[in-house]
Write the structure tokens for this entry.
Amino acid sequence: MSEVFVDQPAVPGSASPVLPSYRLQQPRLPRWAPAGLAAASVAVACGVGAAAGLGSHVQWGLIAALLYIAGTFVLATAVEGVRQAKDRLFTSLVWVCFIVAVVPLVSLIWETVGRGTKVLDGTFLSHSMAGVLTIQPGGGVYHAIIGTLEQVGIATAIAAPIGLLTAVYLVEYGRGRLAKAVTFFVDVMTGIPSIVAGLFVLSFWILMLDNGYSGFAGSMALAILMMPVVVRSTEEMLKLVPNELREASLALGVPKWRTILKVVLPTAIGGIATGLMLAVARIAGESAPIVLLVFGSQLINDNPFEGAQSSLPYYIYEQWAAGNAASYDRAWAAALVLIAFVMILNLVARGIARWKAPKSR
């Protein structure tokens, strides 16, 4: 890259020499340097790993990451200077952390898709395990899909409005000891293990009130787990709404409740929907409360208020515990169905958020 120099002009009528030129632009590495350095780091790491007899590709990747970070800093220091080298060092750290976070996710999806598609077909999605031995191929996940949809749907219907209204109270109205107490208990509930929520509902709903095992009992435990996530995520999104919007609405004489309903909530609807889907994704994979409260079933049960039900997490656990090739295939296929279920929910939430978000020109 060309450099620009500026000469200090001599004072007229004097014999003083011209001062040395000043560099206005430092030399920079070419754009292909990071990619080339990454490729070289991978090649060297593969060579080192093969020569040292390292059988794990994770070790090769860690060696390549360290070589890339160190090489970026050394090369940038030699060419661009220490200040720019520090910037490139932290940029390379960000990229390495991003790759470290993405690789397990991609590996998980790749493994699940590769193993789950063996038995995933229309028959698997439309049949239950009624009359099917675990050691035999066949059967399906239809009863577990129904159980998951009903249990997660009821839990969302319970937790979403309570969590949303609680967040609105904390942001818009909450003052004093009551708001502090609510915030404290919400923070405590965020870290409650799922088995504790299941034991609470078991002791209260089934043992004390003498109700039977049902999908509704599991939904109440899932709602306990979902509620604090909805509250915290919605509260943070409402705090991001500029106060100028509230003040402008109130200055026009609009009541506060209508300002919240028509201005604040539509502005934050995207983040609220995302937080709600995160909460749904958390409870969709819970199996401990289902084992305690729903009890599992091989048959189709459309009534969540009476009788045992199954769910996708419980079905996966049940099939994997059977310990044979046919049940392993069914477990991987059910895991793929569960991942697809969560992805579809996220896509629907993003569509609703984009549809309800304020339009900007």
Q: What stands out?
A: The longest strand covers residues 19-23. The mean pLDDT is 85. The chain has 14 helices and two strands.
